[in-house]
Design goal:
Helices cover 0% and strands 56% of the residues. The chain has 80 residues and is mainly beta.
């Protein structure tokens, strides 16, 4: 993005299932996605700012897609 700031995009799809993946089905998965910015001026310390969105399970998308939650995170990471 800039000489001092990196950007990242992320997307995940998943859920938690009982032992041996009982009830595993694609429609029971939930999606989350977002964007983040991170300073890259030092390898030891970075300042991060992220905005993430999450949806209901895919089976509910048949009726109506909705964003169920929004998360905003700001923090400092030390080291790798």
């Amino acid at each position: 993005v800039h000489t001092m700031v990196d950007a990242n995009l992320f997307f995940s799809l998943g859920n938690v299932f009982r032992g041996r993946f009982e009830c595993l089905h694609a429609k029971r998965l939930a999606a989350s996605w977002g964007v983040g910015l991170r300073t890259n001026t030092s390898r030891e310390v970075s300042f991060d700012f992220l905005v993430a969105f999450g949806s209901n399970r895919l089976e509910a998308w048949d009726d109506d897609f909705s964003v169920d939650f929004v998360r905003v995170v700001a923090g400092i990471n030390q080291g790798f």
